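Quick log. Single chain, no ligands specified.
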Amino acid sequence: MTRSSRRRPWYRRLMVGVALTVLVLAAPAGADDVVTVKAVSWTRSSSLTVNHIDAATALVGGRWYLFGAYFGVNPVRYTQRVDVFDLATKRWGSASRAMPEAVSHAGVAVVDDRYVYLAGGFRPNRSLVCNVTPVCERYGSTNVWRYDTQTDRYALAPPLPEPRGSGSLALVGRTLHFVSGVGSDRLERVDHWTLDLDNGSRWVASTPLPPGTGRNHFGLVTVGTMLFAVGGQQGLAVDNDVRLLSSVLAFDTANPDAGWVRKADLPAARSHTAQTTLTFGCVILIAGGDNPANTGTSTLWQYVPTSDTWSAVGSGLPDARFGAALQTDGTALYYAGGSPTSTGRSTQIGRVTLGREATA
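-> predicted structure:
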């Protein structure tokens, strides 16, 4: 996941309000201190009409989008519905136009605070409803859709070189990066492809992940010129062969010759966090996810790149979920969807208290 390349820095957009206020601590700090998340106070907001599990998520122009995916998992129930949360009114509604195809586990990135790119993913094989078996879904797609939030229109963008599902997409500058995921055979790939949005007409190969580190259901976020691939899993539940990952890999797009570098591991393995891993200022947050497989957690962790350290944020999340969606407008956190459906339909808004971490 990534955010628009033209968004103003979050620290210039602090807001005053009961639910959305960010409190900056008054203690003296050095000029190079890193602002971190100290605690989050959660308040329940309006509920989704239809739950979304493993759905792509994007926040554009004060509207939070959840794109399709599942609204049930036993059996799998796909939907092309797009639900939209208005940050001003705190209400959900549905977009007037459904997705052009039912898809889950797509990589997602926002460009120009207008366009949402949806890359790859899983699709239903024969029916929108099916039992969880290897023939239930098509595990990989080359389709890349560009959704225009202003015209409510979808258009096909240059396709991925090969079918991929449950890979991740991120934006660095004016270049999209698609990393890893599984092929049609449900096996992980280490590929890393890029698309130049200004001058490119096709995806080109970039530095792959190290051998043996391919993954799915993982978070991919940017901090400056750096890409961070966080956690995930190898194998899929449909094959009863899931190995959860705690490893974190980083890639500096400004120094590609250095390749992907191992960073500090997560405090524990987490998967199903592709849409609940994001950057908040200069730190990375990862919310919930599963451990053991298909069992939700309520942890909220943050990573400080300058110190290469992970820590827990306050008491975590208000409930345990995996396959959920997390977004931020730079002042608050928004959390919805995921499994189990009993809690996934609820929306939580997090009031953030900031701290500071001195740099060495």
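The chain has one helix and 29 strands.
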